[in-house]
Write a structure and sequence with these properties.
33 helices; 0% strand; repeat; HAT_PRP39_C
Length: 641
């Protein structure tokens, strides 16, 4: 009973005595005199250090030859690649891998590792910084520029990338390049520190006027009190008191105007909210009107109501995004289905007024079809020749110094031809060649003049074509083909000679083939042989050897009468075969001595030679070639008893 009374429910019905913590009794020190040998803390630490077990370290590997070095590199690369497969997201692994490759002086592999790391996460600017630092440290300046360009293009809001890029160019003494980088950066409207860095850069090189123009752009980008004060102090420092006073006056005017503009903006926002509510009511009212027309109106009224509803929807779409050209196309098709000329032209004019935001062709490729549809409508549907010509003239004012569309030039010229106005068509095509030359324009212009029989104009056009693009083998071949069709053999040959002497050609094999075919068609076999020899001096390609041999096999001596041809057919075949064999022998000798690694080409050459010998029948000697063919050796396994 006593135990029950003493127990506490908070302690799980245990007594306080049972829950007491019993501590060990402190030992009493009986002898408090100092020991005869005193041990210091330094001795204790030294003994602990001596008794500590030696750290297990991997043995140092000494590499004595290239084979061991290759094995070591292969093993390390395998370790890194295995680690990357497991933790691809860990950027420190990529960095260690790239630095190891750099330590091995294998810069191409190190660069490859950096590129693979960027594919994992290109948004990590530290990777770009380390990559560029690797290129700069190893004096790969152009590679470093490439890295900085890509980094600033992908991450234009990371200021550190711009600062590092500019610092590198300035250290290299490329002040103009650093200025261009600053200009690219300023297009992104950075914070005040970026603009001030640009200004300090110009002042370091005593470019006060440039710094002043940058200040003007700075206060336009950041119209704040601190920016205007900096501008005024800059003018005061340079002794321009009047300019400083003008800065303060402009700052007062502009900041006051911004305050008034802010108040107007609040008013506009409130009006826009009410307009949205009214537009919602208008849409609801229009839906009720369409339902009423469907229920009580006739067919014409229903169609008008539906067209009006769609027109309302398209207007809303182009108002929200005027550069949505697909919406404009749909809107135009709707109006063309209604047939109201005034409305159609009005929508076209509104659509073409929305010029793309940048002068780059990719932004204009969709927009230009608005003009194309417009001119086709005016010519075919409205049949208004004068308005069609006016629209073409307006369309041809696009910025041709940056890009152009050959389709528009050709359509405008063909339109004038349909109106029997050849001189105007020639002026249009001449302007196209002068302002924005293209292959399509040259080809079509030459085709038109050729159909009209103006050979001299064709020659002048080909000359212009080749001045603009001297590497174009198509133009050289067509020009020579024109001269040949006019029986101007020497002119055609001279053109071919000029063509093959060009330092760079886009398709030289086609040009040489055309020249050789031309000489064969003229039965100039000696010239053809000389051409083949010149071609072999430039390239020893298998196809050239085979073509040369086939030509020799098919060539016949000139100046023989019909009776002589019948009598000496066998002799002619024999001579042709001998010349072809000589070519094959030269080719085989080249592939054996100068290019022994091209075994497949040598086998193909012998196969062609064998086919040619068999095609000559009795004159040919198949065994001669078979003796030269590679033989297959079969290795038999030794029998184990």
């Amino acid at each position: 009973m006593a135990n029950a009374r003493d127990s506490d429910p908070n302690l799980g019905y245990l007594t306080k005595k049972e829950t007491e913590v019993k501590l060990p009794r402190p030992t009493r020190v009986k002898n408090k005199t100092p020991a005869p040998i005193q041990i210091t803390a330094e001795q204790i630490l030294r003994e602990a250090r001596e008794r500590q077990e030696a750290e297990i370290r991997p043995p140092k590997q000494k590499i004595t030859d290239a084979t061991e070095l290759g094995d070591y590199r292969l093993r390390k690369r395998k370790e890194f690649e295995d680690l990357i497969r497991r933790v691809r997201w860990n950027k420190s692994v990529w960095v260690k891998y790239a630095k190891w490759e750099e330590s091995q002086k294998d810069y191409a592999r190190a660069r490859s590792v950096w590129e693979r790391a960027l594919e994992v996460d290109y948004r990590d600017h530290t990777l770009w910084l380390k990559y560029a630092d690797f290129e700069m440290k190893n004096k790969f300046v152009n590679h470093a520029r490439n890295v900085w360009d890509r980094a600033t293009q992908l991450l234009p809001r990371v200021d550190q990338l711009w600062y590092k890029y500019i610092h590198m160019e300035e250290m290299l003494g490329n002040v103009a390049g650093a200025r261009q980088i600053f200009e690219r950066w300023m297009k992104w409207a950075p914070d005040q520190q970026g603009w001030l860095s640009y200004i300090k850069f110009e002042l370091r090189y005593n470019e006060v006027e440039r710094a002043r123009s940058i200040f003007e752009r700075f206060v336009d980008c950041h119209p704040k009190v601190s920016a205007w004060i900096r501008f005024a102090k800059f003018e005061m420092k340079n002794g321009e008191i009047a300019r400083a006073r003008n800065c303060y006056e402009r700052a007062v005017d502009k900041l006051g105007m911004m305050r008034r503009r802010r108040n107007c903006l609040w008013l506009l926002l409130s009006l826009r909210r009410s307009a949205r509510r009214q537009r919602g009511r208008a849409e609801e009212l229009y839906k009720k009107f369409v339902a009423f027309e469907k229920q009580y109106g006739d067919r014409e009224g229903i169609e008008d109501a539906i067209v009006g509803k769609r027109r309302f929807q398209y207007e809303d779409e182009v108002r929200k995004n005027p550069l949505n050209y697909d919406a404009w196309f749909d809107y135009i098709r709707l109006e063309e289905s209604c047939g109201d000329k005034q409305r159609i032209e009005d929508v076209y004019e509104r659509a073409i007024a929305n010029i793309p935001p940048a002068q780059e062709k990719r932004y204009w490729q969709r927009y230009i079809y608005l003009w194309i549809n417009y001119v086709l409508y005016e010519e075919l549907d409205a049949q208004d020749v004068d308005r069609t010509r006016d629209v073409y003239n307006l369309c041809l004012k696009i910025p041709h110094n940056k890009f152009s569309f050959a389709k528009i030039w050709l359509m405008a010229a063909q339109f004038e031809i349909r109106q029997l106005n050849i001189d105007r068509a020639r002026r249009i095509l001449g302007s196209a060649i002068g302002m924005a030359p293209k292959d399509k324009i040259f080809k079509k212009y030459i085709e038109i003049e050729l159909q009209l029989g103006n050979i001299e104009r064709c020659r002048k056009l080909y000359e212009k074509y080749l001045e603009w693009s001297p590497e174009n083998c198509y133009a050289w071949s067509k020009f020579a083909e024109l001269e040949r069709s006019l029986a101007e053999t020497e002119r055609a040959r001279a053109l071919f000679e000029l063509a093959i002497d060009q330092p760079a050609l886009d398709m030289p094999e086609l040009l040489w083939k055309a020249y050789i075919d031309f000489e064969i068609s003229e039965a100039e076999y000696e010239r053809t042989r000389a051409l083949y020899e010149r071609l072999l001096n430039r390239t020893k390609h298998l196809k050239v050897w085979i073509s040369y041999a086939k030509f020799e096999a098919s060539a016949r001596d000139e100046g023989l009468q019909e009776s002589d041809l019948r009598e000496s057919d066998y002799e002619q075949k024999r001579k042709s075969l001998q010349r072809a064999r000589a070519v094959f022998e030269r080719a085989l000798s080249y592939f054996r001595t100068s290019a022994p690694e091209l075994k497949e080409e040598r086998a193909m050459l012998l196969e062609e030679w064998l086919n040619m010998e068999s095609s000559f029948g009795k004159v040919g000697d198949v065994d001669l070639v078979r003796a030269k063919l590679p033989k297959k050796l079969k290795k038999e396994k030794a029998n184990r008893n």
